[in-house]
Amino acid sequence: MSLSRVSETDALLIGRIRDGEEDAWQDLIDRYEGRLLAFVESRLRRRAHSEDVVQETFIGFLNSLPNYDGRRSLESYLFAICAYKLTDHLRREGRRPTLPLSSAGAGRSSSDTWELEGPARPASSLVRSGERRTLEEDALVEAIRQQIENWKTRGDWGKIQCVELLFVRGWANKDVASHLQISEQHVANYKHDFTNKLRGSVKNQQLCEEVFPELYTN
């Protein structure tokens, strides 16, 4: 129930911002600036630079507002943008971060810390924070739900069984084919169709590109 209330509050706030309500933007800043600043400052340890990153985060959100999907968690979306802006800031400085990207990493060995191995390392490998993982999970859950509902509506129960055996139970293609008494080629086709549909569905959710950058590569 609390998640529904939060979503409704976020939706109202976004609606006010889109309507150009004078106090709405300040309400957004008041609500999230402190948490974003704490997140960045715990990694940069420099107040002025942290404030710059948070400011860039809000600007990034404003620029992406026309594509923002109101079904997504506003907090997670802001933190995903913030993580990207933080990564970009560190890359510009040529720094090698040594702190875990999420607070859950406290106490881990040095091999689990967030390290920049070289200037060619893609940003996508550096921003898998808890906030980004939440966005990824929510997007995939929604994509899977849409595809399963689509197949149920069309009565494609065989495809649903096939996907369940492949991805939930982890069966090999040949075992699924034998169990369902279809060819391995059919199994491969269903698998390919399912992953392609998920890819398209996630991309259509119009998340910021930092969440699934692999969807936007040529």
UniProtKB/TrEMBL annotation:
SUPFAM superfamilies: Sigma2 domain of RNA polymerase sigma factors (SSF88946). It comes from Bremerella cremea. It comes from the Bacteria. This is Sigma-70 family RNA polymerase sigma factor. Keywords: Sigma factor, Transcription, Transcription regulation. Pfam families: Sigma70_r2. One of its GO terms (molecular function) is sigma factor activity. The lineage of its organism: Bacteria, Pseudomonadati, Planctomycetota, Planctomycetia, Pirellulales. Residues 28-96 form the RNA polymerase sigma-70 region domain.
